[in-house]
Amino acid sequence: MAVSRRAFLASVGAGGAGALVLPSISWRGYESLHARQGLQGMDARRADRLLAAKPGMIRIDSNENPNGPGQRVLDVIRGSLGQSNRYPVKSEDDLIDAVCKRHGVKPENVILGCGSGELLRAAVRAFTRGDRALVSPQPTFEAPATFAKFINVPVVAPPVDALLRLDLDAMAELGKGAGLVYFCNPNNPTATVHGKTAVDGYVEYAGRLSPGTTFLIDEAYHEYVADPSYATSVPLALANPRVVVTRTCSKVFGMAGLRVGYAIGQPATVAAMAPWLLGSNVNQLALVAAHTAIADAGHIAQEQGLNQQAREATRKFFEKAGYKVGACEANFMMVDIRRDVKAFKAACIAQGVAVGRPFPPLTTHLRVSIGTMAEMRKAFAVFQRALA
After folding, report:
1. CB-based burial label for 42 (10 Å; 0-12, 13-18, 19+)
2. What residue ranges of the chain are covered by domains with CATH 3.90.1150.10?
3. pLDDT over 50 (residue 131)
4. Which residue among 127, 145, 166, 170 is least crowded, i.e. fewest CB within 10 A of its CB?
5. Where do the H-state alpha helices sit in the chain?
6. What are the residue ranges of CATH 3.40.640.10 in the chain?
7. How do beta strands 261-265 and 243-248 pair?
């Protein structure tokens, strides 16, 4: 029998909700913590997310899918709770088979990760070293660069161009001798995308300049792209041993909290990453959920439509208010609000809306994730007051 999201949460017990009250520090304490000067890196990020998780907050700060997974996913999770006492084995194979069917690849082309984040770390480990830098544009998703710095790997950070796109020419020139290039397409946080011809041309040219460099193309937001010039780089990864593509179930599939992703490449390429992954790195429930989600074409199409509708309404709000909105090829957008983002964010949080953190050097550009239409309407009223 189908179960609603509300009934599903009730059926698994109140333990999850208890996480909101277990910490010894109150929400006001978190607000105080967030306001303190000197928080850096993951400490600042955690404080930011704790504030966003405050009950009643409209959470449009972390590029999550506001609708969650589809009904089929909820049903299969509930039906699989009895397997929680067993280490996953066959369910790993089942998910890999589903990925193969979706992308037309073979099992030896696929590895699974605890979200795509674990796979990004594995790639940094596998392909960089002290004399083989990571190329990671600025701004982009910072996790690979943060980890590279932690293990004393140099990071080269070419700035985005005037249209907030990754500067492929600069990435090619500055990437000579690099171990790994991180290419987020669409790029987070700028929501810009490069088409298939540009990506293929860049990899071919940069590969000639630096034959030993590997290119990781992160397609976390693939399903949201409307640009007709865009296409997945999975075929490129199958043809070129220096290319690997990562995907995640955190975005259109609505499973950011379940943590499951995968990488596709030639067997030797993904095999180089595999030793840096944990065994049984994807939990039993995430495996069966992802297996169901990636085959649920109806739910994917529904989420694409809902995102596009709310995204266009958000674009129109900001443009009507006189602000420039960049490309929107994801479930978020970047808006130049012509003022300090940190102060604007604090004003929004005070009124119950969590928006994206600052992304230097774009300190006047606000990243807004796309919530439900009802959430965005409430957020518009807060934005209007904060921008006044």
Report:
1. exposed
2. 36-65+297-387
3. yes
4. 170
5. 5-11, 15-18, 27-35, 41-52, 71-80, 90-103, 115-127, 143-150, 168-174, 196-209, 234-239, 267-273, 284-293, 297-320, 341-350, 373-387
6. 71-293
7. antiparallel
Residue listed under structure tokens 């701004």: 139
**Per-residue CA distances from 147 to 2, 24, 144, 263 (Å):** 42, 30, 5, 18
CA distances from 377 to 62, 64, 380 (A): 18, 17, 5
The pLDDT of residue 53: 77
Long-range contacts of 76-79 (CB under 8 A, 24+ apart): 76/288, 76/289, 76/291, 76/292, 77/8, 77/285, 77/288, 77/289, 78/3, 78/8, 78/11, 78/12
The per-residue pLDDT for range 41-50, each reduced to its tens digit, is: 556 677 777 8
CA nearest neighbour of 258 among 89, 76, 48? 76
Looking up tokens 């397997």, which residue turns up? 83
DSSP bridge partners of 129: 132
Q: Which of 39-43, 81-85, 146-150, 360-364 has the lowest mean pLDDT?
A: 39-43
CATH code of the domain made up of 36-65+297-387: 3.90.1150.10
**Fold held by 71-293:** Aspartate Aminotransferase; domain 2 (3.40.640)
Distance set, CA 149 to CA 143, 155, 350, 362 (Å): 10, 7, 34, 21
In whole angstroms, give the CA distance from residue 203 to residue 239. 12
pLDDT above 90 coverage of the chain, percent: 85
Is 154:134 a contact under the CB 8 Å cutoff?
yes
CB contact set of 208 (below 8 Å; sequence gap of 6+): none
